[in-house]
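Propose amino acids for all 178 sites.
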């Protein structure tokens, strides 16, 4: 009887050890298979016409103003809209990136005048960026790269970058000279 109880105890210990080992192995990040993801190119390469996308605007006309050209009326420049749809194929990523792009454009179109306005815009952007980091199968590094690529698309002229820097200064509590 003592031998049977001792064997059962040993079996339970082995099973619990195996379960614990499996849990630890599953939590080890580098051991989990993650396929390599390609980084989206910064340059727009539209080879086929998509009826759901606006036409590519003339670069000179598009860059002539801070707001750029938005023929769709969704609050995102047409070139950025095309770039998002060309480089990202899932609806979830596209929707989140469009929301982020709208907030970035608001920095230029309806430039905040007070720190409170800047903080509201910043919170809107952070909310969308957080959603991007929660997309299934997307690592935080991938989300950060997508954010950086979108930033480089949105603030692609010295005037637009200057407006972003003014917003950033206002956001940090500094005074912005007009």
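Proposal:
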């Amino acid at each position: 009887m003592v031998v049977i109880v001792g064997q059962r105890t040993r079996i339970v210990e082995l099973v619990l050890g195996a379960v614990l080992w499996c849990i630890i192995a599953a939590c080890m990040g580098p051991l989990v298979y993650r396929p390599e993801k390609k980084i989206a190119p910064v340059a727009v390469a539209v080879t086929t016409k998509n009826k759901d996308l606006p036409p590519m605007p003339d670069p000179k006309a598009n860059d002539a103003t801070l707001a750029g050209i938005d023929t769709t009326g969704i609050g995102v420049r047409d070139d950025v809209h095309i770039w998002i749809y060309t480089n990202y194929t899932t609806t979830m990523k596209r929707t989140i990136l469009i929301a982020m792009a709208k907030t970035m454009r608001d920095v230029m179109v309806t430039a905040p005048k007070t720190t409170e306005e800047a903080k509201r815009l910043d919170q809107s952007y952070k909310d969308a960026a957080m959603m991007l980091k929660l997309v299934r199968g997307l690592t935080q590094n991938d989300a950060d790269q997508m954010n950086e690529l979108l930033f480089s698309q949105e603030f692609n002229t010295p005037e637009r970058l200057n407006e972003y820097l003014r917003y950033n200064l206002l956001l940090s509590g500094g005074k912005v000279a007009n």
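The chain has two domains: 1-33, 39-171. The mean pLDDT is 81.
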